[in-house]
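Appendix B, record 7
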Amino acid sequence: MSDDEDAPRTAKRTRIYYGSLEGQERQRMGREAGGGTKGGSAAIKAGIKAGNINISSGEFLEIEDRSASGPSGERQSDVLVEFERRRRARHLAISTDDSEVKGCLRRLGEPITLFGEGPPDRRERLRAVLSVVGGDALSKSKKDAESSRPRPQDERQETWYHEGPASLKEARLWMAKFSLPRAVKRLDEARIQKEVSESARTIRQQELHKNLQNLNNFCSQIGDDRPISYCHFSPDSKMLATGSWSGLCKLWSVPDSQLVRTLRGHNTSVGAVVFRPGSTLSLEKSDVNLASCSTDGVVKLWNLQSDEPVADIEGHMSRVSRLAWHPSGRFLGTACYDNSWRLWDLELREEILHQEGHSKGVHDLHFHPDGSLALTGGLDAFGRLWDLRTGRCIMFLEGHLKEIYSVCFSPNGWHAATGSGDHTCKVWDLRTRKCIYTIAAHQNLLSSVRFQPTDGHFLLTGAYDNTAKAWSHPGWSPMKTLAGHEGKVMGVDISPDGGLIATCSYDRTFKLWLSE
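Structure tokens (predicted):
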């Protein structure tokens, strides 16, 4: 190897050009033209001819006008409008009921059907129409139709009354004379209780709460082949009546739960079976001792000697869900799904009151211990308190979110409870006419609520979550959960002496609970 090869090689430096290449090229071409060199110009001409060098000749091309005023802009705006319409159509909620779809098309002025069009195609056509005219077009058209509809001249937005029969007036006076002495007696007992020392009341309340916490299942009996819908203790606390979906009403001895008698007469599900006040105490066995109702609107009266009904009460055109005896035993109230409740006089053997007021069916009713008031709960989620002496609705119970399935008065006379399908039980103060407490009681709808019948020191609730619960009063704190049924608890009751609790269920059994 030579010395030159052994010497380190120097890196070739790159030249950096500043300025525009076009300007440098013009300078170079000017120098060549000034020098009179023909070779450079010949080479440039040869490059232009070969197509390697492009020099503008002043020609230009028009750029397409994309503004909104041009024809292409209009096409673009149409496409955007179509995309927006399809987006609105995707978010529209269209009914799957073909009759409703036809009704909507009719209100919009569109043909309800086209040749060869099926329900899915008709639904998509309604979606396309609403995506153009707007989703609120249906409500506007409905309001316009209602406003244009002629109203009758005699329609009045005011409370109206009609003249009742003479028997109703006599019954109202009789109930007023019956209720006033009972109210005086109840208030005297309340004054006596108020004079009891605070320590004595506290000790008694602690004992009652202890008894509640010691409640246990004393007896369980299969009551029927179908679900048992209702149960009710006799006034002497020695008998239990149950009604089932088979249409049978049965009487059971308490506490041994032996079948005493089966009452046959209903052809459909029994809604309720209730002992008459004074039954098993002052009434003869041959007198009317029980009443029952069923889903076909039939109400039957029973005695304690026969398996057949003594009489039928006719006049209901819809389902009778519940019934209740007036404390006097003379009147019977029935709750009907024709949005009304009725009062029957058994002495006169006729209907003396057909009371409307609810916007949906009336499911339950209960009479005040004095006999002066009636409380009804309806499927419209409202309760109403009625004064039987005047016929007026004196309190409107508003607050539940779903149907009211059970109502009950407290023995103290000024508290009432309502159980609803919104899983809550509300306690109302009749003196202040408002709800004083809302119990988040269960995880499903409440089927029944009952106050302790002697002094109302606890509240019992039954629900479709297969449990019944006892709540202290006052305070409304949970004291005991009665769990054991395998199906929905459809009814609860407390014996008049306060010693036993009965629950009946969808699992075809009824259970007795006793404090150990």
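Remarks on this record: The radius of gyration is 43 Å. The chain has a mean pLDDT of 86.
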